[in-house]
Amino acid sequence: MDSTLINLWPLLGVAVIIVGFVLRFNPFVVVVVTALVTAALAGFPFQKVLAELGTGFVKTRNLPLILVLPLAVIGLLERHGLRQHAQNWIGHIKSATTGRLLIVYLGARQLTAAIGLTSLGGHPQMVRPLLAPMAEGATETRYGKLPEALRYRLRAFSAATDNVGLFFGEDIFVAFGAIVLMTTFLHEAGIDVEPIHVAVWGIPTAICAFLIHAYRLRRLDQYIAKEMANAPAPASTTREGGAA
């Protein structure tokens, strides 16, 4: 057999991880099974696989603390009324709407991500405890109690705004991993490109992303006004024990 042939069987690990996520299995189990399947198809000895897993665990044993401690702090803040304070605070700003609030956050998220401060936002530390309650509070101040479907829509737009701001903002940061990867790949192909040039060309894309999503957020305000205008009036409270 020709020793130069490339073994493509380990690529079946990609299919394993795709099937696992499509079927909504536990992500940890999917990743571990994928690693074992890929290692087996690549001909790795089982002892070597265990050694690599152990080495990876030792190198990242402090990672759970980095992830868990901030979540614990956020949980304590929520327990002591962080969400309610955020809703009450935004409720005092009469000119605030959900669309305007999210547009301001979108701009701030893009600008901070563009200078490498990607950890200032995020779903667990910003969207869930602060941004989504503020979006709901701004709408409730104008229209009163919200239908559940609309409430979940506001939460979805809050999460999407954070995603858009981060994704297109970090492409401008010259030390972003994707920019380093692209420049390295191009250098290996004989194309000399500086990271700063790739980052600069990310600016037009970031501007377009901001304008498009800001337009969607402006339309969100119109959608909210329409939905609340067509919402049924709250049912009158019946007397206990029937009619007098």
Automatic annotation (TrEMBL):
What residues form the membrane-spanning segments?
6-23, 28-46, 58-77, 164-186, 198-217
Q: What is this protein called?
A: DUF969 domain-containing protein
Q: Which UniProt keywords apply?
A: Membrane, Transmembrane, Transmembrane helix
Q: Which domain of life is it from?
A: Bacteria
